[in-house]
Amino acid sequence: MLGPKTMVAGCIDEALSIAEDEQPDAILIDANLNGADGIAALPALRSLAPNTALIVFTGAMSGSARSRSLQLGADAYISKLHVGRIRELVREIVLEARVRRRDAG
After folding, report:
1. How many domains does the chain have?
2. How far apart are CA 101 and CA 105, in angstroms?
3. Residue 1 pLDDT > 60
4. What is the pLDDT of residue 2?
5. What span, in angstroms and rounded, lies between the C-alpha atoms of 1 and 94?
6. How far apart are CA 51 and CA 71, in angstroms?
7. pLDDT single digits (tens) 32-57
8. Residue 99: which CATH number?
9. Is residue 57 in some structural domain?
10. Which residues constitute the domain of residue 24?
C-alpha cells in the first residue's frame, strides 16, 4: 500500500459526491464542517460508501457527540489532540473496519 490518496471537501455536499465517486478507504469528517453538522452526514456517507471507514475528527470530545457519531455509522471518533498520530490511527481504523465488515458479511 502506497498510502492514502487525500481529497478535501469544503462542504457536506462535496463530501457526499467524493464518497460516491471515489469509494475511498476512509473518510475523515470534521464534526463541525464549515458550520454544518458533519455527524448528521454519516448515514448518507455510509449509504454512498458502505465499505469506507468513517472517522469523525473533532476538537470537542463530548460523550454524547461520540455516542451519536457511532450510532449514526462512524467507525471511530478521534480528537484533534491526536493530529500528530492521525495517519497511524486512520490506518488502524481502516483495517479494523475491514475486518468487522468481513466478519459481519
Report:
1. 1
2. 6
3. no
4. 53
5. 13
6. 17
7. 887 889 999 999 999 999 999 999 98
8. 3.40.50.2300
9. yes
10. 12-104
